[in-house]
Amino acid sequence: MAKDKTAYVCSNCGQESTKWIGKCPSCGQWNTFKEIRIAADTGTMAAQSAAQSVRTARGSSNQPMRLRDIPNRDEARIDTHDGELNRVLGGGLVPGSIILLGGEPGIGKSTLTLQTILNMPEKQILYVSGEESAHQLKMRAERIGKQMPSFSHDNLLILTETSLEAIFAHIREVKPELVIVDSIQTIATEDVDSSPGSLSQVRECASALLRFAKSSGVPVVLIGHITKEGSLAGPKILEHIVDAVIQFEGDQHHIYRILRSIKNRFGSTSELGIYEMQHNGLRQVSNPSELLLAQHQEDLSGIAISSAIEGLRPFLVETQALVSSAAYGTPQRSATGFDQRRLNMLLAVLEKRVGFKLMQKDVFLNIAGGLRVTDLAMDLSVIAAVLSSNVDTPIESGWCMAGEVGLSGEVRPVSRIEQRIAEAEKLGFNHIIIPKYNMQGLAHRHFQIELHPVRKVEEALRALFG
Prior knowledge:
By secondary structure, the protein is of the alpha/beta class. The protein has helices spanning 42-58, 83-89, 109-118, 134-144, 164-174, 199-216, 237-241, 288-292, 340-354, 379-391, 417-426, 457-465; strands at residues 5-10, 16-17, 33-38, 98-103, 125-129, 156-160, 178-182, 220-224, 244-249, 256-264, 272-278, 281-284, 303-310, 313-325, 333-336, 361-367, 399-401, 404-405, 411-412, 431-435, 450-454. Strands 6-5-7-8-4-9-10-11-12 form a 9-stranded mixed β-sheet, sandwiched between helices.
């Protein structure tokens, strides 16, 4: 029998030590080392036993292979029957992968997960819930699955359990094709003598589930909590060991939810999916441009439309700006959904290169729809919206723009200009301002929308305001 061991772990960063230390050498915090008891590594044995049981049922086993003997083909992904989720994951779930889904409390993580697996009747799925009872999950499933033809399938198994060893025991019996753990902070193993949700418990449980996923080929989805600062709760190693980290964002007081990939070993990290929260679950938004553009009955100043791209998806987004005289001595600069430092840079370009005095003006910027955009092609619309509000002159309807602004006032080229133009044309816009350099590859193309190539910010403002 292996003897139990004692270790000291920093409760702030997870740094380990064989003895107690007053100051953590990793994060510099004082009095954060806590004593924990490490029992015999039964979690590893349980994970290996569960993985071996699943592999035996499938008739497969792990054997060493030469690199040249490994077949050169893409792994068949598991379709989740959710276009937005498949896009964020890079095409679907990869067998043997482990996914971490995080988000604010009540944002809809469990709803999204339950809604997705209800649409997969062809898979044997084990849903492990450590937070909710089986009756609560039944009520939510009935609310979500009223309009689903596959709601009555019998391949979804609910397990309310918080013991990691008990979970692996049920996995050996059920032999699922997909495992959901809601949430990883509620699972505890007997190997670690600490409460569920502690750094050591989260690390050991996630490591055991990782070993099971890689050994058996069964994908595992972990639902995780986040801290008040917005980062994922638990040790940083939790984000390192998983294959993909997906953040579910949005304001609880708004109906739109954004699914964003922070880390993805099997796809792009800049993809996003957009959902609309309804009384019977989350609805996929296939065309976000129509939701991000407000339909105004009259022209208003301070509004500009930009053609942005996040990942592989182009969409049009509305930029709103308000410029007013500073009520107090120091002017305010506020940005919602846009980088604050980049806004300050663009205001400096407007003042230095274009000649508009904004030193004594309050500037407020907002990206409509609650979306946070990092595309540099938004620069031109930010400057246009600020100037439109400053002179109180609306931009004519039917105009949109895309371009990065440099420190000298030049309009720099942007990537994938054809997709931006096609999206604006599809939504009925008549004019689009683009960088002059991007015209090199568009000379032979014929668009219904009129192109306005510009080299400097002054040319763009002259085209908008005359």
